[in-house]
Design goal:
Length: 504
């Protein structure tokens, strides 16, 4: 699974909110009344706020809390007014300072917000609110700043499990490696449902399906109707090839989850599970449902192609893979996908047909090999520095010209050799290329060249039996060729002389 696909999958599994610290919990009934009035009666809400402040003129935290009510209600101007009044109070409060940061943030003034949160952290090193807000401010811009702030809080407040927040941060920026490392330091039973989901998702993303499944089971035990945990169970069990269990999970997700918003990926994984049980036609039905849900997602055609491939239906597998490749954009990994398409055509070309008794290819097989050659040619064009496209073009042309009468494969093998020698890549492929070129020259009775490439094989593998046999055979053939040449030359000389004399 590539990175792009992974991000898409994770976004489907759970729509996680951006990390944020909850605002003040308005426990005061008076503040709750003001908040409710602000929705429909803002003037009365302000009047109620003024009456409350009149009784508590120097209560900095109360005035700041009122300002927050108006900020949360979308009345930024009133929030600013209450912030200024809180600042004029004799006693400094981190609640007021943090309010200034929140107002600045709402106005998209990140520098000002940073100033207020930093000031609040300095004023009270043990108040976690400012640390969380500061960390949230930098989550997308400078994650390290966020982590540093939370680590300072950890030092000042060892009684708070700051690691949960740190893990959240790493999760939000898709740094699953770091997130996993931090989650592993936290007792599982201390995680709430959201944290448990995120931890399970991180493990799923890291392909640690066993541990992800373990956590999803805990979540399912807490809430059997939760669609996210049921989804994770389906995905993890399918990846682990626990297909019978996956079928139960699919039933729970599709029929017994509360408020489940089914996504195309759910049908794809359901299809995977069916496929695993050999119920491929049913799997294809699920993939087609996924396709209907999101026709613009090219990967669905890829999954349908894989399903057809499972039952060796190469024609339909190729059909859907062609659709998939046609939807790829220039910035996608088109070379890789063309390579996979070429391999599909290749597999169709070499697959034994019913009642096929010899090694000669049918017309349909030859057409498939030609299409494979076309796809591998795209790979060579898109990745000219890679040997793979040229190597597989050579193999395709070897089947199109099995006796090397036309020399179709020769230029591609030579190009592959050039790149393999330059880059020091696959020794096995390099040896195969040497063998093919050695055989080509032998078939053309260029025995010296055949020996030269056989000796190249020995530079990679001195004990290669093919190289030894080719050197012996080609050397003997070259010697015989030279003997024949000499005998022929001697026999023809007198005739030439006679011929010359007759002319006289």
């Amino acid at each position: 699974m590539n990175k792009k696909w992974l991000v898409l999958v994770l976004s489907i599994i759970i729509c996680a909110p951006v990390f944020s610290q909850d605002d003040d919990i308005l426990q005061s009934s008076d503040l709750q009344v003001i908040a409710s009035l602000l929705v429909d009666n803002p003037d009365i809400a302000k009047s109620s706020a003024e009456k409350l402040i009149k009784k508590n003129k120097e209560n900095t935290e109360l005035i700041a809390a009122i300002g927050r009510v108006f900020l949360n209600g979308g009345d930024l101007d009133s929030a600013k007014d209450y912030f200024k009044r809180a600042q004029r109070c004799k006693r400094i409060s981190t609640k007021a300072i943090n309010l200034g940061g929140d107002i600045a943030k709402a106005n998209n003034k990140a520098d000002s917000a940073e100033y207020y949160y930093a000031r609040s952290m300095y004023f009270d090193r043990k108040d976690p609110e400012a640390y969380y807000k500061y960390a949230n401010l930098f989550i997308t811009k400078d994650i390290q700043k966020s982590i540093e702030a939370l680590n300072r809080l950890k030092m000042n407040r060892p009684d708070i499990n700051v690691n949960k927040r740190i893990a959240d941060l790493y999760y939000e920026v898709n740094d699953f490696t770091k997130a996993q490392e931090v989650y592993e330091t936290i007792q599982t039973d201390s995680l709430d449902d959201k944290e448990l989901m995120q931890y399970s998702l991180v493990l799923y993303a890291k392909k640690n399906y066993e541990k992800s499944l373990e956590l999803a089971k805990i979540g399912h035990k807490r809430n059997a109707q939760d669609p996210v945990f049921n989804r994770l169970l389906l995905y993890d069990n399918t990846e682990l090839q626990n297909y019978d269990e996956a079928m139960k999970d699919a039933d729970n997700l599709f029929h017994h989850s509360k408020d489940a918003k089914l996504q195309h990926q759910d049908y794809i994984y359901y299809g995977y599970a069916l496929n695993g049980l050999g119920r491929t036609q049913e799997a294809i039905e699920q993939f087609n449902i996924a396709l209907q849900k999101n026709e613009n997602l090219p990967d669905i055609n890829k999954q349908i192609s894989d399903a057809y491939l499972r039952i060796n239906d190469f024609d339909n597998a190729i059909k859907h893979y062609e659709i998939y490749v046609s939807k790829l954009k220039d910035n996608d990994n088109r070379a890789y996908e063309y390579f996979q398409l070429g391999r599909l055509y290749w597999r169709k070309g070499i697959a034994k047909q019913d009642n096929q008794t010899n090694d000669s290819l049918t017309t349909d097989q030859l057409k498939a090999i030609e299409q494979a050659n076309r796809a591998f040619g795209e790979v060579s064009t898109l990745r000219p520095s890679s040997y793979l496209g040229f190597y597989w073009q050579a193999k395709a042309n070897s089947l199109l010209d099995p006796e090397y009468k036309k020399g179709l494969a020769k230029p591609y093998f030579l190009k592959a050799i050039e790149l393999l020698e330059q880059n020091g890549e696959s020794k096995d492929h390099l040896i195969e290329c040497y063998k093919q070129i050695a055989y080509y020259y032998y078939s053309q009775r260029e025995y010296d060249m055949a020996v030269e490439y056989a000796r190249k094989i020995q530079t990679v593998d001195p004990d290669d039996d093919y190289a030894k046999q080719m050197i012996a055979t080609a050397t003997a053939a070259a010697s015989q060729k030279n003997v024949v040449k000499k005998v022929t030359s001697k026999k023809s000389a007198p005739k030439k002389a006679v011929k010359r004399r007759s002319k006289r």
